[in-house]
Amino acid sequence: MKKLSARRRHPLAAVVVLLLALAATGGLYAAFAPASKAQADETSQSLAIDEGKKLYAVGCASCHGTGGQGTSDGPSLVGVGAAAVDFQVGTGRMPAQQPGAQIPSKKVIYSQAEIDQLAAYISSLGAGPAVPGKAQYGPEGADIAKGGELFRTNCAQCHNFTGKGGALTHGKFAPSLEGVSPKHIYEAMQTGPQNMPSFNDTTLTEQNKKDIIAYLNAVNGEETESPGGLELGGLGPVSEGLFAWIFGLGALIAVAVWVAARTAKAKKS
């Protein structure tokens, strides 16, 4: 008993007891709390993938193959990422009604929860661009003027100067960007759907994409008014100049002919 009491009174005894208590607390926390959270996240992701696989088997496998490897009717989906799924399915382009030069947008048949499940399954086949968050495509911190420059340089050749869309070759077309959600525009730039090239973060940075989206919102927003009056469809300077040349010059010629006719008639009188 005297030896035990002496050990208890040792100067390092309190330190040893404190270290043992901390080690036990840390071990219990590491063993239970993080493991439970990680396990719950893993279980949730696994369930999403399983549900997405079921949806894929019904609505997508006939064209893209049972394992997403692709067929003669549809490309491989390995490595396209969740962003491509969210865009294609979220805009109603997929599942496609019929093959063609261009797959147009249509009514969405899946809920957002089902789209997320499909995206989880496709992502499990191979890494690819993730679905962007609101901080990436929101208007906060965007430069509209810079976005206009970037859009005219990289996008206007197909989508027109204000995103009105335009015709391409062999029945293809660049769709109008009016009314398209900022998230889907960002995803389109990320993934390059159909005839569109992809603009990864080395080509157009995250800030560049945000600026372009802000520009499109500025020129196509519900409260946007053309500062020059009639916008003639916003088709750009070439078509607008041609309109002015044909109709404006035609009106001037008509007025000149009318004045000359009136003058000649007055002289005869």
The top-level CATH class of the domain at 133-227 is: Mainly Alpha
Shape: elongated
CATH architecture of the domain at 133-227: Orthogonal Bundle
Poorly predicted runs: none
* Number of H/I helices: 11
Subcellular location: Cell membrane
Binding site for heme c 1: 60, 63-64
Pfam family, one: Cytochrom_C
Membrane topology: Multi-pass membrane protein
How are the elements arranged and paired?
Blueprint: H1 2-8, H2 13-59, H3 61-64, H4 81-90, H5 112-125, H6 134-137, H7 144-154, H8 156-159, E1 166-167, E2 173-174, H9 182-191, H10 206-220, H11 237-268
Antiparallel strand pairs: 1-2
Helix pairs in contact: 2-5, 4-5, 4-9, 7-10, 9-10
Description:
It is an enzyme of class 7 (translocase). Residues 47-126, 142-220 form the Cytochrome c domain. GO terms for molecular function: heme binding; iron ion binding; quinol-cytochrome-c reductase activity. InterPro entries: bc1_cytC-su (IPR009152), Cyt_c-like_dom (IPR009056), Cyt_c-like_dom_sf (IPR036909), Cytochrome_c_Oxidase_Subunit (IPR050597), TAT_signal (IPR006311). With 269 residues, the protein is mostly helical. Among the domains are: 45-66 and 75-131, Cytochrome Bc1 Complex, Chain D, domain 2 (Orthogonal Bundle), CATH 1.10.760.10; 133-227, Cytochrome c-like domain (Cytochrome Bc1 Complex, Chain D, domain 2), CATH 1.10.760.10. It has 11 helices and 2 strands. A two-stranded antiparallel ribbon has the order 1-2. The radius of gyration is 31 Å and the shape is elongated. It starts with a helix and ends with a helix. The model has no long low-confidence stretch (mean pLDDT 84).
